[in-house]
Amino acid sequence: MRAIFLDRDGVICENRPDHVKSWAEFRFLPGALPALRRLSVAPFSIVVVTNQAIVHRGMAPAAVVDEIHQRMIREIQQAGGRVDAVYYCPHRPEEGCFCRKPKPGLLFQAARDLGIRLEDSYLIGDALTDVEAALAAGCQPMLVRTGRGALYAEQVLRRYPEVPIFQDLFEAVSWILHREVQILPTQPLKVTDVPLAAPLG
């Protein structure tokens, strides 16, 4: 199985400076739901991989983060899209874990759980940490200019000129589908029974 990994804040939803600490603070970015609807027919697992240090910082319990993800998935499904699994790192940067991006632990865990071939997969993110996590895991990184992406675009272009940069998730998804057009199915794939939310650590 191949996958499209998606960062959450700044790619799917707004990246708040004070963090998304409840469902009431969660706002889908313009174009995100149509992008996920369009992506849903592609022969990929769609997996969200996100750093959520708010858990270990005591800003929100894991149960609230799980609720946010479950409600996010429900809204995406109601809009005609899908997310097959969510993996998040609850640790603070100084804890030195292997799951916090730019480390590739979240991607490795998803690959083990879901049988994903990382070398044939993509990661769409809005930060240098997303790009470096993708490269460390051996999959194709893609940067969007939403969220923090506009701030990181020049740095990514300078360090990793091979990484494609897009305006938003919809444009990135369109690029993938155009690239993969010869292997797209004519009917949506059945979504397998995989976890909605899985913290590491």
Your description of this structure?
The chain is of the alpha/beta class and 201 residues long. It has one domain: HAD superfamily/HAD-like (Rossmann fold, 3-Layer(aba) Sandwich). The protein has six helices and seven strands. Strands 6-5-4-1-2-3-7 form a seven-stranded parallel sheet, with helices on both faces. Helix 1 (32-39) links the parallel strand 1 and strand 2. The chain is globular, with a radius of gyration of 15 Å. The model is unreliable at 184-197 (pLDDT under 50).
Task: State the name of the first-level CATH class.
Answer: Alpha Beta
Per CATH, the superfamily is HAD superfamily/HAD-like
What is the mean predicted local confidence, pLDDT? 92
Overall 3D geometry? globular
Largest sheet, described in full?
7 strands, parallel
State the domain count. Answer: 1
The chain-level structural class is alpha/beta
In the sheet with the most strands, the strands line up as 6-5-4-1-2-3-7
Helix content: 25-40%
CATH topology: Rossmann fold
**Rg, nearest Å:** 15 Å
Which terms would index this structure?
globular, alpha/beta, 7-stranded parallel β-sheet, 7 strands, about 35% helix, 6 helices, Rossmann fold, about 15% strand, about 200 residues
Chart the SSEs and their pairings.
Blueprint: E1 3-6, H1 32-39, E2 45-51, H2 62-78, E3 85-89, H3 105-114, E4 122-125, H4 128-137, E5 140-144, H5 149-159, E6 165-166, H6 169-179, E7 198-199
Parallel strand pairs: 1-2, 1-4, 2-3, 3-7, 4-5, 5-6
Helix pairs in contact: 1-6
